[in-house]
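S1.2 Input.
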Amino acid sequence: IGPNINLALVPEVKERSTTLIVFDRSGSMQTMGDEPIQSINMFIKEQQLSASDDDTLSLYLFSDTIIKKLNQIPVNKVEPLKEFSCYGMTSLNDAIGCAIDEHLSLHNVVCVIVTDGFENSSKKYTTNRIKEKVKEMENLMGWLFIYLAANQDSVAVGSKLGISCCSNYEQSTPGDLLNIIRETSGTVTSYHQSQRKVSNGKY
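S1.3 Output.
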């Protein structure tokens, strides 16, 4: 079951909608074959069905290095990924911190974090500091964070990061990541649409 969001608590929209994806590509993700890249491309395709012209998407891929693949590109102009290589360890905290730092001025952001393992190689950010940053962005800028994880209790780990919208997927079950990403895409769409209705005075 995907993350459940109470849309009655959606903050007022300030500007365009942005979706920020922070996606694990550490070595252990290799066991899933093409499912990670298929999941990202499916998410992009589904978001394009409902995105407005101003909506943007950013994508960070991380292992023990962080690569910014997309930086606030209009959703309707995003091309499918053609390559997804897996290697290295899991700098989860640094990836989240970097993604937040580069979008600090934006309201109406949904940040979707996908991982298959625990933090084990960050150099800049501690878990406690990420929790502080998550709460700052939620409270000051109205961000929504969604944490999707395998091989752990996503609720327990997510809570340490300050994230309450959490779900697990089974890494060893073919198609399970695709399913949870599909459900999450629906949640993201509903969230953005609700914010647009608030902005337009329909609530």
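S1.4 Remarks. Helices lie at 35-48, 92-101, 127-141, 154-160, 176-199.
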